[in-house]
Amino acid sequence: SINNLFSQRLINTITAQFQSVLPGAFRITTNPEQCLSCANLQSWSPGRSYYSLFEMKNSRSVWILHLSRSVGEGLASLTHQRNAHEKNNVFIGLREADSLIYLEIGELLRGVFNSIIELWPKSEKLNVSRCRHILQLVFLNHSIQEDDYVIISFHLDNRECSGDFHLVFSQRHLLSIQI
Fold it and tell me: What is the pLDDT of residue 179?
């Protein structure tokens, strides 16, 4: 189980990143976390939605940011509106998750993740070797299949963008954090 201080630091970090996109007031809350093996993690996957896999250098681990369709498409629409000055949701008609969303929110997701990495001590030497945005959760790297993963669930509540999102960390990295 993660401690409340670390959970609050995650919420504060994500809130700071989302403030650049979300209009007005918003709230992020956490739900109880789960710990799953790699095999069970794939069965947990909430279906076709938005996943960002961050492969970590030196540690042979993958960390995951998952956005439900409502959060991914809501953030993409708000980012698009901010950049194109259009006031309608151009993504509302999507019948299923679409990789087009990552063109709008890729920079935001990298910012969120880079901020989260800063919560760990510098001695961990955590760096992202590569990031992959995908629509269904699959693993190609067999070395990470030995890890157990902690899924931290969040709920975003905003008048323009609401829904669930998750952070998934290798359990060994969560055990190493001293807060």
Answer: 47
Q: Phi/psi of residue 158, each to 5°?
A: -150, 150
DSSP 8-state symbol, 124: G
Q: For residue 161, which amino acid is it?
A: C
Spatial strand order in the sheet of 128-134: 26-37, 148-158, 163-170, 61-67, 50-56, 128-134
Nearest of 65, 21, 32, 20 to residue 161 by alpha carbon: 21
Give me the helix-helix angle, 69-84 and 101-117, nearest 10°.
100
* Contact call for residues 72 and 80 (beta carbons, < 8 A): no
> What is the length of the chain?
179
Spatial contact of 156 and 163, defined as CB atoms under 8 Å apart? yes
- HSE at residue 74, side-chain half, CA atoms within 13 A, is 18
pLDDT tens-digit map of 73-89: 899 889 888 777 656 66
Q: From CA 120, how far away is CA 2, in angstroms rounded? A: 14
pTM of the model: 0.86
Q: Return the amino acid letter for 66.
A: H
According to DSSP, residue 173 is labeled H
Contact indicator for 171, 77 with CB cutoff of 8 Å: no
Return the SS3 of 146: helix
